[in-house]
Structures are given as C-alpha cells and as structure tokens.
Zinc-dependent peptidase (Aquimarina muelleri), 290 residues
Amino acid sequence: MNIYRIIFLLLIQEVLPENTMFQNILGITVTVGVILICVYYVLRYTESIYVKYKSKPYFIHFYPTLKKLPIHLQKFLEENNFYKILDKNKKQYFEHRAVRFLEKTNFVGREGLVVDDFMRMQVTIMVTQLTFGMRHYLLEYLSTIILYPTSFFSILSQTENIGEYNPRSKALVLSWKDFQKGNLHQDKGKSLGIHEMTHAIHYNSIKNSNISSEIFYDTFLMLEKHLGSAELRKRIVETKILRDYAYTDKFEFIAVLVEVFMESPKELKSKFPQIYVYVLQMLNFRYFDK
C-alpha cells in the first residue's frame, strides 16, 4: 500500500467516522441495488420458462404514465379499423405507443416529398399495429423513416427499389406511392410497410435479447424446422398463398408470410393453421382470434 493511499484512508476516517448516516444510506442503497438486480434476473429467467410453455410473455403493456396525441393527430387513429376494434384500455396503450414512436423517429422526405401529418401517422399506425403484441415495441435499430414519392435507386442493392430496411443507418426506406397502395389493401396479401418493418423486427430480434426478440427469433427457428417437410413446402408453393418473391431467401419468406398473416389471416389460418400459429406467436399478435 503506497503512502498516498494511506493518507487518503486516514483522511476518510477523519471526515467520515464509523456508522455515519452517509455510510448507512450508501450501504442500504448498494444492498437494495444488488437485490433488485437479482430479482430482475430471476424474473427474466422464470419468464423465459413461462414463454417456453405459454408462447407469450408475462405481460405486454405497462406504462407509469400514458401519453396522448395532440388533438389534430387523434383523428387519424379514429379512422383506423384496427384501432376501432380495441377496448378502451388498449386504445390508450395504442395511442401511447404511437406517441413514443413519433418522439423517437425522424421522418425524412426525399426528391421534394414533403412529409405531412397524414404520412407520419399512416406509417406510425402501421408500425404500432404490427408491434402491438410485443412488449419491446421501440426497435433499437430503427430511428429513421425515409419516404420517396415513388421508387428510388438503392445504394445498398444498386437497383431500383420501392422499399428497403438499412440496419447500418437504422432506417426504413419506402416509396410513399407503394406504401399507400398496400396500406389501402389494393394488392391482396401485400403490404410494403409490413414487409419492410418485418425485416426491421427480424434484424432486431437477432441483435437483442429482450423477451420480445427472444420470442420472435426462437419461434422463427421453430417455423424453419416445421418447413423442413418437402411435402409442406410443395403445398405452400401450389396454393400460391405466398408470392414468388417469398422464395428468395428465409428473410424474404418471413416478411412475405407476415404480410399475408396481417392482410389475409383467415386464408392463412384455413390453409396452413400451424404456420398461422407460428406467426401469431412470433409477433404475439392475438387480435384476429378474438
């Protein structure tokens, strides 16, 4: 022990005699902190066990305070069909999540497109609905929404695109024209916003270990195993329930599958009930069966 450390300890003893109030408070604080950390990890472990048997988290919604949208934005919620079917409490939760998404997300218009309240709210409602069954709904690797008037040239793929998810930039890039086409259900089983947002959820589930990511990713692996059957894959192709783009790779497959789940749930459930259940579990989206 060097001379400076000895002097420091002597000074501390002079300034803070044994069992001072400061030491008592510090001791209590450290003890409580250790206990809370232990409790957190115990609950986290037991919830993982619960998820294994119940295929859903302990809870989804818990907010100390609920935020409200400005009055001029609330009308967009009231026009949404999914929002309309929710009970009073869930409507408040939906609104709160929409506010939080708007707070953390930067909207950017490209090629002269001016992003107005209508555009922001249509994207926000889509994202809020898709993640409404997930406790961890604010994705770490998504902070920017970029809107183009129509298709755009992608630096990533060096092709003309209508949508993409860029994890490096934490950005979702969309053609507004094509987003609205899907949002208005003009293409059966297709939704550009849901497709690209599923990519964002999938990427976040790989990178994170929260309970929502764990459920999504683990169930996705179960779905992959289920699809190992050559006979099942043949049936999926023959029914044409998924468009051809789904067979590009496993990431496109799940993105197209979630589109069909959200846009045509009854058809998916009737033709492939087990696949329907897997997607329901991945998103913990249990609102079609109510």
DSSP finds 13 helices and six strands in the chain.
